[in-house]
Each structure stands twice: as C-alpha cells, then as structure tokens.
Design a protein that fits this description.
The complex is a heterodimer of chains A (319) and B (318). Chain A has 319 residues and is of the alpha/beta class. Helix content of chain A is 33%, strand content 24%. In chain A, 50% of the residues are buried. Chain B has 318 residues and is of the alpha/beta class. Chain B has one domain: Rossmann fold, CATH 3.40.50.300. Helix content of chain B is 31%, strand content 22%. In chain B, the strands form two sheets. Chain B has an eight-stranded mixed sheet with strand order 6-7-8-3-9-10-12-11, with helices on both faces. Chain B has a four-stranded antiparallel sheet with strand order 2-1-4-5, covered by helices on one side. In chain B, helix 3 runs parallel beside helix 5 (155-167), helix 4 packs across helix 5 and helix 5 (155-167) packs parallel to helix 6. The chains are: A alpha/beta (319), B alpha/beta (318).
C-alpha cells in the first residue's frame, strides 16, 4: 500500500537568546493507511516537537521548520498557505494530546465542539452536524451519548474527556491521527480502554496512527512499526517485533533492559547519566557520553542510519 | 513487626452541604490493615483516588487518622503527642513523587540534606558537613555537588537528594510515595537499584506506594492492592502475581501493557471509570465494574478473609 503520511528530512529549530536549539534533526518516516507507527523516546528527545511540526503548530517565532517535507496523501503540508493548512487540520490530519483540556474548550458543551468541527470542514446543516457529534460520542463508546453531548468538559472524568477529544479529532475522518502520549495521564484500566478504542477506530476507518509515547509496554501492545528518537534524531527504526527482539542501538538495548517486567525479577540494568539538553549536544553521537560501547569515532562523527538487518535501520558506529 | 497498621480510617469532612445539611464525609481510607517486617518492602498499589497516598501520610501522622491504630516498633503512635512524634520521625521518613516540588529551590543541596541533622541536634558544623558528604556518596552523588542548587540537578539526581535527606537520621522505615513515577524510564532503574541496595545495607523497610505494577513487583516482598479506600487483596508478591484472586487485581494485571510484542493478545479489559470516594457504590465498591458481580455484591460489604496462608482477599466469590 502507498503510504498516506510521508515525512522526509524534517528539521525544526528554536531560536533562543542563548542560541539555536535543534529540536528535530533530519527525521524521515512514512506510515501506511491503517498502520500504527510508534515514536519512542524520553522527555526532551524532540518527539512532541516533531508531532507539532507535522501539524504545523510550532509557535513561530521562536520555532521554525528549516527543512524537509510532510506529505499527506501526496500534498506537502509545509508548502501550503495558512488558510489551506487550517482546512487540512481536522479533515486530513488531526492530533490528540496527553491532557484533553488543551484541546477542549471549557465554555462549550462537548457536542457543540464536535459539531463545530464538522461544520467547519463539511457543507452540512447545523442539525446534521449535531447528529454527527452524538454519533461520534457513541462511536467512542461514551454511554448515553445524547445526554453527554450536552455536558461541559469539566462534568466528565479524565477517561471520558480523552474519548471526547478522540471523537472530535476523528469527526471528519482524517487520514492521519497523531496521538501524543494519549494515555500517560490515565489510570491503567482506563489506559487499556482508550488504547483499545484507538485501535478499533484505526481498523474501522483505516486511519494511519502516529503514536508518540515513552512507554515501551504501550508500543509492544499496539504499534506495528516504531522509530526511536534520541536528542532530536531518529536513531533506530523497524517493525516492533524486530526491534524488541534484536535492538541494535545501545540506547534501545538499554531502555529495554531498564524496564521492570511483571514475572521477571532480576536486577535492572541502568543507563548511566541523563538525556543531554538539546541546547548543549555533544559532537558526534549524542548518546556516546552514556554509551557503554562507545569508541573514539562515536565522539567525533554522527553515525549514519544503516540497514543492520532487512527493514531494520540503526545509527550506531559500533553495533 | 516494625510497623503494624490496624483498621486505619481517614474521613475528610465533605464539602458543599445543601441548605445547612451536613454533607457526607469523604471516606479516603476505610479500614485498612497491614504490617511491614524489618528489612522488607510492602508495595501498595492502586489507581488514582484509591487512598494509597493518604495511607502513607497517615502512618507518619502528616495527616491525622480518624480511627484505627498504628504501631511502630511495638509502640502505639496513633495518639502520640506531637513533641514525642517529632523524635520518632527520625526513624520514619518519606520520599515524594515529584523531586521538583519537594526540594526548596533556594537552598543548596548540601543544606537540604543537612537540615534534618540540624533540627535533630547535630550542632557541630564540621561534623554535619562530614555526615552530609557521606550521605551524598552513599546515594551516588559527588561531594562537590553539595554546593549546587536543586535546579542544577536532573530529575533522577534530585530524587537521590530526597533519598539522602530521608536517610540522614538513620531511619528504619521509609514511605516512598511514587518515587520513580516522574522520572524517565532510563533513570527509573537507577533510583530503584539505589533503593534496593540501601535496603540491603541498612536493613531498611519500605512502604512503596505506586500505580505501576511492574515496579511494585520488582521491589516488594508483599503487595496490598487498594480500591476506593480499602485493601481488596494482600499477599506475598510472588503469590499475588502468580495467582491473583480478586477480580480487580486480575483486571489491573490484564490492563498493564507488557513490553513483549511476541505475546501480544487482545485481552478483556475492564469497563467503567474509577469511582470517586465522595460517591461510593454500596456493597462491594468494585461491583459496578466487576464482570462477576452478583446480587449479594450490590448490598453486602465483603470482609477481607484469609483464603490461604498469608493471602487475604475481600470478595464474596473467592
């Protein structure tokens, strides 16, 4: 199948008083319809900035997308003027956030907000848009959708709000859904419900999902392929099954060995040190100062992304 | 037993009474009993609002419990006057979740760690400095970092400072309230390993409060699962993870995403929301979400029963 989202050479910088911060550097990937691509990394690795760049929601200034292209069904979003881009958001590419209140208006009922989204993108009557809102709430398994449509966000629980935000994001059946840590703020039993829901909708509507998370458990449960980001760069890429079985970058190896697993009690392997600030990256491989296998070359030059096994690429001089 | 908690209760006064009517109290903890042995860890798991943090704070009497007893090293401390209690706090300490808000940003890391020493009468400056330096080294920080301020440390290092401060007076028990939840995955392992090493060296006991089952399994000898102010299941770690008996414990374990794509399977997940302690369901609190609930569960509170040696479950159907 042809990919519906193609990101190529994306670079985003922030101009600050103390200099230029390279938040995203030369990131490329593609996602097919109905596929879930996970973007994995720790705080400060640039994964959220990458997501906001895809939506062209980077605050500018100080932010600036300096290179690359973001194609949705062939159209390069980075070349569109702002009004056209506004049409694309919601109808072609939509985003959900960790905290639903960043996307929901506290002063409007949930039903009204979803209906507004529909009337913005489609030529439908107000009544039809309202009907669609109720239908979407039903779709995301909110009980009593007609009554709930008349409620304000604060009247709903966290899990319910997350569903309402998903209903709004998917109301116009976008081709691409970007989910930025959609379950991080939720309890585990609610997280499981929301992940199931996103997965069902993906299958039903054929949406391509970009799932941004730091939780390797979530990745293993729902994603098909994954990219690993470290300090603004993609350092590893492949199918989830392949990367979990044969991680090649010492960073991913370290991450996989540092998470405790139910039923496997053994001493956890630590990764020394912490993620470097993006404003002060070491020359060469950004992971080298924390890497147990680093050699002199790692400190001098940035390693290229090489194919280590079929369909599995990693940026490491050593492994 | 180092710590014995019996039928602990904490009710907060309700808010927003209507027309002078006294509102119902919020039952944050509703009859919780457990014990911790010297050198062992009890993991307290549950979702938000289940009362696990309130239990941790009540034990240290940072919150005054409404009823029940807390015995520490054999002494009943539930109604101990605050002056004596202050002395006892040398032996029981707490580490909080957020290392960003639990350290005073205007004080140097060394002074933060030295403060308990000062409060509890180590008057000599050089002696304090030497002790602080030893504490820094014990938690994997360098003595040179004593003069830095909290913002100059990463999240994991700040949690090390919190742990050093908690260790300053040689405690027997540390209540650790979600100590690694705010940390990056790669840093979590450092702090967990440090806490386990310290336990071995100092014969420390932990009450380890967390929502993360995998972390709890890793660090605990015993586990208590809480739901809406009550312990629903309580057993040795190995037993509860191999054979969870309460439907809530089973659902909780099924909901944890496992970092193992080879074993991916679509599981039956629990419906409904975590209810609020303000408006608790009657009977078994879990019955509205329970796939097995029967008529009896809707009306009658299940009492914790020992179903096999050392394994307690509060469920009518087990």
């Amino acid at each position: 199948m042809a990919p519906v989202l193609e990101v190529s050479g994306l670079s985003t910088v922030f101009h600050t008083r103390t200099g230029t911060v390279r938040a995203v550097q030369d990131v490329s990937f593609s996602v097919e319809p109905g596929e879930t691509m996970a973007v994995v990394g720790e705080s400060g690795c640039g994964k959220t900035m990458m997501a906001l760049s895809l939506m062209r929601l980077i605050p500018s200034p100080p932010g600036e997308i300096t290179a690359g292209s973001v194609r949705v069904a062939g159209t390069d979003l980075l070349k569109l003027d702002e009004p056209t881009m506004r049409d694309m958001r919601g109808s072609q590419i939509a985003m959900i956030f960790q905290e639903p209140m960043t996307a929901l208006n506290p002063l409007l009922t949930v039903g009204k907000q979803i209906a507004e989204m529909v009337t913005l993108h489609e030529k439908v009557s107000g009544r039809a848009a309202k009907e669609r809102a109720v239908e979407m709430l039903h779709h995301v398994k909110i009980p009593e959708p007609r009554r709930r449509a008349g409620e304000y966000p604060h009247q709903m629980s966290g899990g319910m709000r997350q569903r309402a935000m998903i209903a709004m994001a998917l109301a116009c059946k976008p081709k691409v859904l970007i989910a930025d840590e959609p379950t991080t703020a939720l309890d585990v039993t609610i997280q499981a419900q929301v992940l199931d829901l996103i997965d069902d909708l993906r299958q039903e509507l054929g949406t391509a999902v970009v799932l941004i998370t730091h939780d390797l458990g979530v990745v293993a449960e729902v994603a098909d392929r994954m990219i690993v980001m470290y300090a603004g760069r993609k350092v590893e890429e492949g199918t989830v099954a392949e990367l979990f079985a044969h991680p090649r970058h010492p960073y991913l190896q370290g991450l996989l060995n540092s998470v405790p697993r139910v039923g496997q009690p053994k001493r956890l392997q630590e990764i020394a040190g912490t993620v470097p600030p993006l404003s002060n990256l070491p020359p060469g491989c950004a992971f080298a100062p924390r890497c147990p296998s680093a050699v002199a070359q790692c400190r001098d030059a940035i390693p290229p992304l090489d194919e280590k096994r079929p369909g599995h690429r990693a940026a490491c001089w050593v492994t | 037993m180092l710590l014995e908690v019996n039928d602990l209760r904490k009710y907060f006064p309700g808010r927003g009474g209507f027309f002078g009517k006294t509102p119902d109290p919020v039952h944050a903890i509703d009859g919780v009993s457990f014990a911790i042995q010297e050198g062992k860890t009890l993991g307290l798991v549950g979702e938000s609002g289940c009362g696990k943090s309130t239990v941790g704070r009540s034990i240290l009497r940072l919150i005054e419990p409404t009823a029940g007893t807390i015995r520490f090293e054999g002494t009943d401390i539930t109604r101990m006057p605050s002056k004596e209690m202050r002395n006892l706090r040398k032996r029981m300490q707490i580490v909080f979740q957020d290392p960003y808000s639990s350290l005073n940003p205007r004080r140097r890391a060394g002074d933060i760690v030295a403060e308990p020493l000062l409060v509890h009468g180590v008057e000599n400056r050089t002696e304090r400095r030497a002790k602080t330096q030893a504490l820094f080294e014990r938690v994997g920080l360098r003595a040179a970092q004593m003069d830095l301020y909290p913002h100059q440390f990463s999240g994991g290092q700040r949690q090390r400072i919190s742990i050093a401060r908690a260790l300053a007076l040689g405690p027997k028990l540390i209540v650790a309230d979600e100590p690694v939840s705010a940390l990056d995955v790669s840093v979590q392992a450092q702090v967990i390993n440090l806490m386990m090493d310290l336990q071995e060296q100092e014969k420390l006991s932990y009450l380890f409060i967390s929502h993360n089952l995998a972390v709890v399994e890793h660090v605990s000898h015993q586990v208590a699962v809480m739901y809406l102010g009550r312990i629903v299941e309580y057993a040795a770690t190995k037993r509860i993870f191999e054979r969870p008996l309460h439907p809530y414990t089973q659902a909780l374990m099924a909901a944890v995403p496992m970092p193992d794509p080879a074993n991916r399977r679509r599981k039956q997940h629990l419906g409904g929301d975590v209810p609020s302690p303000v408006n608790r369901p009657k009977g078994c609190h879990f019955h509205p979400r329970c796939p097995l609930a029967q008529e009896r569960c809707r009306v009658e509170d299940p009492m914790p029963r020992e179903v096999e040696a050392g394994h307690q479950v509060a469920c009518h159907l087990v």
